[in-house]
Amino acid sequence: MPRHQIPEWVTRGKTIRQLIAELQSFDDQDAEVRISMDFGDTNWCVSIVERHGPYCVLVNTEEYHNNQWQTFMDEQPER
Asked: Which strand (E) or helix (H) includes residue 68?
C-alpha cells in the first residue's frame, strides 16, 4: 500500500478532452508529439491515433515498418 495517495489520473489516465487541453497549453503547437513508458528516457513518435474499443490509443508503427512491412514488400512481385 502506498504511503501517499496516487492521483487518479495516474491509474485512470486522461480523457481526449483533458489531453487536448494540456497539449493546447504548449507554446509551440508544431512540436512533435512522442510517447514514453519510462519518463522520457526512451521515446517514440506517435504514428497513428486509433479507436480500440472504448479507448483512444496512440500507436508507434516503427517496429512494424522496420520488420513486417519490409518482409511484405520483399515478397511483392516486381512491377
From this structure: helix 68-74
Q: Give domain status of residue 3, yes or no.
A: no
Range of 26's domain? 8-74
Instruction: Give strand pairing partners of 56.
Output: 51
Cell digits for 31?
Answer: 512540436
pTM over 0.70: no
Cell of 61: 508503427
Residue-wise pLDDT tens digits, 31-51: 999 999 999 999 999 999 999
Contact between 23 and 33 (Cβ < 8 Å)? yes
Number of domains in the chain: 1
Pairing mode of beta strands 44-45, 48-52: unpaired
User: From residue 31, how far is each of 1, 6, 25, 27 by CA, in Å?
Assistant: 38, 30, 12, 9
Tally the C-alpha atoms within 13 A of residue 23's C-alpha that lie toward its C-beta. 13
Cα Rg for the chain, rounded, in angstroms? Answer: 18
